[in-house]
Every structure is written in structure tokens, then in C-alpha cells.
Amino acid sequence: MAGERRGRAEDAQRDPRSGPTAPAAATAPLLALALAAACIHPAQADSPTVPPASEQIAAAVLPLPPAMREHATVVGYGPDMALTLLRAGTNGMVCTGTRPADAQFDVRCYHETFIPIVRRIAQLGALPAADRRRTIDQEIKAGNLPLPSGPVAGYRMLGPAAAYDAATQSAGAAIASWQSIHFPYRTAAEIGLPEEGTVSRTLPYVMASGTFWSHVMINDADHH
């Protein structure tokens, strides 16, 4: 279903060949994100074959516009299936690769200033949605969880793994692709766009209006 493919509101190593090495202070938040994501996708007893870093990077950055892919930070998987930093980037975007051998191809990118929110959602993934929202709201209001100073972008592709061709680094029509612009705590009325469910999904609309996860959804049928 289209709504499921869009992964509803609160769903989101270093290899010398992959790019420059970032300072420890810069990579620490990214590694923390990797550890948080590991809570959602725990290591399997029988680890599948992990693609080389270059192949994981090519897939992870696919949701981004071509001009933004080369300089994005990429978090992927090591031989032990632990999430790890594959490439340190310079353009502020952080992309997380798809899990090897999963039935779903799921790659997403967010601006680095939104990573603390994404990381905290992952860490609280075992809680009921209402408890998760309440906890994050409390931490934001207490000043313990930073918010971006302005709107920030997110990009995602999701669909059957069989529809992604690693050889050509391309996604078939079965893989959905979309973008989001996050405006924490802003309402649809304040932004000037309709709320989810009131217009066709081919038009921009606001999900989670008025919450920390408030964002404009933008449909994209072009998989590049």
C-alpha cells in the first residue's frame, strides 16, 4: 500500500577506499546513529554475505539528487553485520544503507542536524508509539534533545529488494521514492499545506502536523 511504503511517521568503519577520514568529534554522532539503528535491526545468528563498501554506498545514496550523492556520509554494514561508518561526508547529509539479505530495499538520508531525533526514535523503538512520542517531547522541552534551527530534508526509497539492481545501481518501479521536509512542531496551517488524507498523495501534504515529526511529504516517481 502507498501509505505503508512511505513508512508512516515514526518508522528513520571506516574503509580507506571510501573517502576521507573525519575527525573523531565529527564521526561520534554518526557512529551513535549506527548503534541506535542496530537496536532496530539486531544482528542475525547466521550473517549473510555483506556487499563491499562501494556497493553499499552506491545504494545508500540513491534517494538523494545526483548532485548530492558524492559528498554524503554513509552508514552501512561490516562483515559481522554491525552497522558502521562506511564514508565520512561533507555536505551535511547522512545516509543509512539497506540491510543485506533483507526482503526490503530500504535506504534513507537525513540532514545531520536531524540525526539526534532519528537516533532517539530508534533507541525508543520498543516502546508503544504514544510513550515514544511523550518521551521525546519531554526530552526536547528539557533541552536534552536538540532540534534543527530550521527546516531540514529527508529522502527515502523503499520496496522489494529484488527490484534493486546492484549491477546498474538502479531501482525498479516497485521501489517507491519520496522526500520530506521536516518542520518540528509546525502545523500544516502554519506551513500553508494540506494535512495527510485530505489530498492525493501525488501532491505535497503534511504528516504528523504539530509534532516533533511534522513534515511535508513530497512524492517522487523518478528513481534516477
Notes on the protein architecture:
- The protein has 224 residues and is an alpha+beta fold.
- It has one domain (2-220).
- Helices cover 26% and strands 23% of the residues.
- An eight-stranded mixed β-sheet has the order 2-1-3-4-5-8-10-9, sandwiched between helices.
- The chain is globular.
- The two termini are 22 Å apart.
What attributes characterize this protein structure?
224 residues; two-stranded antiparallel sheet; 7 helices; 8-stranded mixed β-sheet; 26% helix; alpha+beta
Task: Estimate the global geometry from the Cα principal axes.
Answer: globular
How much helix, percentage-wise, in residues? 25-40%
Point out poorly predicted stretches. Answer: 1-27, 36-44
Order of helices and strands: HHHHEEEEHHEEEEHEE
Q: How far from one another are the termini?
A: 22 Å
Taken as a percent bin, the fraction of beta residues is 15-25%
Overall number of strands: 10
Gyration radius, in Å: 17 Å
Biggest beta sheet attributes:
8 strands, mixed
Number of helices: 7
**SS content category:** alpha+beta
Number of domains: 1
- Main sheet strand line-up: 2-1-3-4-5-8-10-9
* Average of per-residue pLDDT values: 83
Topology:
Layout: H1 2-5, H2 24-40, H3 53-60, H4 66-69, E1 73-77, E2 83-87, E3 93-96, E4 104-111, H5 115-123, H6 129-141, E5 152-160, E6 164-165, E7 170-171, E8 176-182, H7 188-191, E9 205-207, E10 215-220
Parallel strand pairs: 1-3
Antiparallel strand pairs: 1-2, 3-4, 4-5, 5-8, 6-7, 8-10, 9-10
Helix pairs in contact: 2-5
